[in-house]
Structures are given as C-alpha cells and as structure tokens.
Design brief:
The complex is a heterodimer of chains A (111) and B (115).
Chain A: E1 4-7, E2 10-14, E3 19-25, E4 31-38, E5 42-50, E6 55-58, E7 61-66, E8 71-76, E9 85-92, E10 99-101, E11 105-110
Chain B: E1 5-7, E2 10-13, E3 19-24, E4 31-37, E5 43-50, E6 65-69, E7 75-79, E8 88-95, E9 105-106, E10 110-114
Parallel strand pairs in B: 2-10
Antiparallel strand pairs in B: 1-3, 3-7, 4-5, 4-8, 6-7, 8-9, 8-10
Classes of the chains: A mainly beta (111), B mainly beta (115).
C-alpha cells in the first residue's frame, strides 16, 4: 500500500490564489519530500523537510510537517499558470533510503 | 552537468517478448531507484540500489522483473515475457545516497507499450 496519500486528488484555482495540498503517511519517517511533475520538465524535487523540522520555506512554497499526525502540507502562494502540475509527497521508511511516493494532487491554475 | 538519462525513450513490444530499459545516473550518485508510473497514477517503487549493498527488490511486482547495476553506475531493468499490464512509464532516479543530500533526480522515463 502507498506510504503517502495526497489530498485533494485534484484542485483548480485562479491565478494569484493560494493552493494547499496535504499528504498523510503511515509509518515513522526520517524526512518527507515534495516533488512536482509536469509534461515539460518531468519530475522535479521541490523541498525536503526533516522529521525534526516543523516548517520550511522556499520561495513561494511553504511546507509544514506534523509528525504526531503523520501529515504534511504544501502551500503555494500567489499561484501562476506555470504551477499547473501534479504534486507528490515522498516519504522514507525510518532507517532506510527507500522512498514511497503518494498518489499525487493534480493542480490546475487558471489564467 | 549531465542529468539522469534513460533509453530508449519509447519502446513498443509484443506481448511475451523481453525488454531491457537502461538508466545512466548522475556521476557520483551512489543511490539509484526504479519506479513505474501508470497513466494518471502515482509512482510505484520497484527497486533501490545503494552503493555495493544488496538491492532492495521489495517493489518488483513479479519474478519477470529484474534489475542490475554494473560498476555502481549504469542500471538495466529487464522485464521478461512482457504482459499488457506492464505498459507504463518506467522512471529512474539517482541521489547522492548515504550521508549526502537525499533529493532524487529523475530521468525523463521510458514509455513502454506492450501490444
């Protein structure tokens, strides 16, 4: 079964709005990563947050991690049409480097 | 520098034939992953190589699937006696591995179609 599950499965917003997507996982982790996939650039790493961190920022991205709830959220602020893509979380099983990807959130930003 | 490369980019094969998919990781990356992605779906973990350690094969869906990594660099994923349900995009990724940054760098994938 998948370690990570994203929700919502699909999200459609207007340009300039914020987009929030969530990831839940099942077992203890060392870190959690978010990736973006679009047809033009394939899968690209966005941000990594370690299990002892609660929040991390990178440009317009903000990631939170709640290990007690085994969940993470990715916030994209001031979205752009170019942010249209699928977003995946990936979690490792604590003590290993094996990553399991979630099912993804398909984000569509309307111009 | 060069990223992860995969070949071929597309492969169409007849049911029952064997196929080999190749991955060239980023130089110096000790960790290498294979994933499978069906249309509109997430990534399914297949196998993980880390340096000279025994690979983690726990994601291989059947004994028709095998992979090797020669000299700690290039990897080949082999699917024997292909079935239509094997049709998917096969993605390879590499990372610095143990002790280094854990971001994975993905190749463009091989789209496999079994007819």
């Amino acid at each position: 079964s998948q370690q990570g599950e994203e929700d919502p499965q699909a999200l459609s917003i207007q340009e300039g709005e914020n987009a929030t997507m969530n990831c839940s996982y099942k077992t203890s982790i060392n870190n959690l990563q978010w990736y973006r996939q679009n047809s033009g650039r394939g899968l690209v790493h966005l941000i990594l947050i370690r299990s002892n961190e609660r929040e991390k920022h990178s440009g317009r991205l903000r990631v939170t991690l709640d290990t007690s709830k085994k969940s993470s959220s990715l916030l994209i602020t001031a979205s752009r049409a170019a942010d249209t893509a699928s977003y995946f979380c990936a979690t490792d099983a604590a003590g290993t480097y094996k990553y399991i990807f979630g099912t993804g959130t398909r984000l569509k930003v309307l111009a | 520098g060069a990223g992860v490369s995969q070949s071929p980019s597309n492969k169409v094969t007849e049911k029952g034939k064997d196929v080999e998919l190749r991955c060239d990781p980023i130089s110096g990356h000790t960790a290498l992953y294979w994933y499978r992605q069906s249309l509109g779906q997430g990534l399914e973990f297949l196998i993980y190589f880390q340096g000279n350690s025994a690979p983690d094969k726990s994601g291989l869906p059947s004994d028709r699937f095998s992979a090797e990594r020669t000299g700690g660099s290039v990897s080949t994923l082999t699917i024997q006696r292909t079935q239509q349900e094997d049709s998917a995009v096969y993605l390879c990724a590499s990372s610095l591995g143990a002790g280094g940054p854990l971001e994975q760098y993905f190749g463009p994938g091989t789209r496999l179609t079994v007819t």
